[in-house]
Design goal:
This protein is an alpha+beta fold. Helices cover 25% and strands 29% of the residues. The protein has helices at residues 31-66, 70-101, 103-127, 132-150; strands at residues 7-9, 16-18, 20-21, 28-29, 154-159, 168-173, 186-190, 204-209, 215-219, 224-228, 236-240, 254-260, 265-270, 275-280, 283-289, 293-298, 304-308, 313-317, 327-331, 375-380, 386-390, 395-399, 407-411, 425-430, 436-440, 445-449. The N and C termini lie far apart (105 Å). The protein contains four helices and 26 strands. The protein has a four-stranded antiparallel β-sheet, with no helix packed on it.
């Protein structure tokens, strides 16, 4: 109980009176205002009591909600998704093993090559025109066929050292051969001089081959995307072709094209318009704006990757979620030659990796087999071997993992006017049979090199 003190000034009314101290706030109050002060404290206590009473049901509510197992449900869904991804990966591995290791397939490949060389020998006998170069070539090819027959593919599995969960990697060890394709190419699109007719191309860049061997071509200087059906004598315009411009229905130097085979639409890097667009039945939709795009690719999960040559980076977008800046997945650290930098990236492919590594070139510009000179298109086969369109060396080079230099598989000839000489190869692609397609920029054509395994 507060005890009266000598007359002092009341904290409330500021009058000299007999006052009583409040131990809580250490102020002096006259009797009247002390009563008011105590009433205020009682009201505050009642409010705090009410707040506590209101908080109690929330505790009970949270206890009830904890029984919904929301986190456990998420874990269960994560488990289901991982199991499904594992099943898909396992099926892909099974198909790869069957495709790579079947002894009958290996024998058939060797037999096909043997028959091809036998026909060459018959032709030599018939024409009776040959020299030491021809004889050495035939001898070397026979030795290689013997080696291939005695060394079938070896397939094994190993743990994935980069994964924090129990993942495996499929390792296919196989002797790689540089003469995998016929060196006489077939022109499958264009090749009728530079022009804008339906049987002509004008600086073809990126190409895409679908399951039916239809060829989709980014026809750069004709400002259009052209589709050439398998065996057709001319193409058909499926995007652009309405003159150079940035209006709907127009393109401005498209550099690459891919096909989203799930919804049968095409996605285009409209480079000079600084946008990525999607076309479906001649209807255009702008997916990404204000990007200095050049190359495109899409992974098996439907993520879209775009190279930005100005900002020296590759960005990734989730399908149907383009109203953002995407995520930088490579580069983005300025222009340079470090492993986390680019210098004007163009065509791209997608491959899981934690960091950048040099897989081709990296030894300065030049024409040696450990060098490249203005590399453009890049593609990867089912064995993980990397193929590069070595533009200014006029060749396509294959780089195998762990090798210090590449192998020329197409072009690289010093003599002109040869049908296997690609002058300025740009885009690369494979069809389902493994035939190699090359966009020949300077000869304004698409060439197909038939596989002869």
């Amino acid at each position: 109980m507060a005890m009266a003190s000598s007359k002092t000034q009341c904290f409330k009314c500021k009058i000299e009176k007999i006052t009583y101290p409040c131990k809580g706030c250490s102020n002096e109050f006259c009797l009247i205002h002390l009563t008011e002060h105590q009433q205020i404290l009682n009201e505050e206590l009642n409010q705090i009591t009410n707040d506590y009473n209101e908080f109690k049901p929330k505790i009970n509510e949270q206890k009830e909600q904890s029984h919904n197992y929301s986190v456990i449900k998420k874990i269960n869904q994560w488990e289901i998704n991982r199991i499904e991804r594992t099943r898909q990966q396992a099926q892909e591995y099974r198909e790869l093993v069957i495709k790579s290791s079947a002894s009958l397939t290996v024998i058939n490949d060797i037999e096909m090559k043997f028959n091809d060389l036998s026909e060459q020998i018959k032709q030599i006998h018939k024409e009776n025109v040959f020299n030491e170069i021809n004889l050495n070539y035939l001898t070397d090819q026979l030795k290689k066929m013997i080696q291939d027959l005695n060394n079938p593919p070896n397939i094994s599995i190993a743990p994935d050292s980069q994964s924090q969960v129990d993942e495996i990697l499929l390792i296919v060890s196989r002797k790689h051969r540089w003469d995998r394709w016929r060196q006489i190419a077939i022109t499958v699109a264009g090749g009728n001089d530079q022009g804008q007719k339906l049987n002509q191309l004008n600086g073809p860049q990126g190409i895409f081959i679908d399951k039916n061997k239809n060829i989709f071509i980014a026809d750069l200087w004709n400002h259009r995307i052209v589709q050439w059906k398998c065996g057709a004598k001319e193409g058909q315009i499926i995007a652009g072709g309405n003159g150079k411009g940035n209006g709907m229905g127009q393109l401005n130097e498209p550099s690459d094209v891919i096909v989203d085979q799930k919804n049968h639409s095409i996605i285009i890097a409209d480079s000079e318009n600084r946008r990525v667009t999607r076309w479906f039945n001649q209807k255009q939709q702008i997916l990404i704006k204000n990007i200095d795009c050049w190359g495109l690719t899409m992974d098996k999960h439907g993520f879209l990757y775009v190279s930005d040559w100005k900002y020296n980076e590759v960005r990734r977008w989730k399908m149907e979620e383009y109203n953002n800046n995407g995520i930088v997945v490579a580069g983005g650290n300025g222009k340079g030659n470090h492993l986390n930098q680019f210098d004007g990236p163009s065509f791209i492919f997608e491959k899981d990796a934690k960091q950048g590594i040099v897989v081709a070139g990296g030894n300065g510009k030049g024409g040696n087999l450990n060098q490249l000179l203005h590399p453009r298109g890049v593609v990867v086969d089912h064995l993980g071997q990397i193929y590069v369109a070595d533009c200014m060396n006029h060749r396509v080079v294959r780089w195998c993992e762990g090798k210090s230099e590449g192998e020329t598989v197409v072009g690289g000839n010093k003599r002109r006017n040869q049908s296997n000489r690609s002058k300025g190869p740009m885009g690369l692609s494979f069809d389902d049979e493994g035939n190699l397609y090359v966009a020949d920029f300077n000869y304004h054509r698409i060439e197909s090199f038939k596989i002869i395994l």
